[in-house]
Amino acid sequence: MECMKRTKGRQSLKLKCIEDNNSRIVAFTKRRSGIFKTVSEFVILTGTDIAIYITNLLGKTYSFAHPNIEPVESQFLQQTLLSESFQELNQEVNVRELIQQLDDVCDDVKDEEQRATILMDKKEVRAKSVWEEPIEKLSPEEARKVKKQLREWQALVFNYLDKKIKVVVQLKS
């Protein structure tokens, strides 16, 4: 025989803001002591110093501190100020590094611009080679020079290939 549960048991509530102000104030009042109790247990278990400020809808502030508020508050403020000053120093260092990188890139760009200018000047100064002219525009003398040069290159390529073929044949034997 199966037993049917008569209640739903403990259910998790969907967290959402309580719409009615009076209900919200009542919930705050009931839960405030639970929060302070939990914090007190946390302090006992861990041996930490802690301070909590809670302000309700009406503007009334409640606090809990262990051992008392002054040392915890001063330590928090010192750490906050130190971390802010470290962040400012870190930002200054990052800015300096970025400025240095920008200067380096600008110097590189200037160098490349100068190099491009020099190359363009050299290109303009250099006489056009026979190889850059269309074959139809070559004079008979220029055509003979091109033909002679091509035969010399052909001979070089064939000699190179013959040597490579001989090496491969020797390796296979």
Automatic annotation (TrEMBL):
Segments crossing the lipid bilayer: none
Transmembrane helix as UniProt keyword: no
Keywords: DNA-binding, Nucleus, Transcription, Transcription regulation
Superkingdom of origin: Eukaryota
Residues of the MADS-box domain: 8-68
Places the protein is found: Nucleus
Stored SMART domains: MADS
Database matches in SUPFAM superfamilies: SRF-like
InterPro entries noted in UniProt: TF_MADSbox, TF_MADSbox_sf
Entry protein name: Agamous-like MADS-box protein AGL62
Annotated organism of origin: Tanacetum coccineum
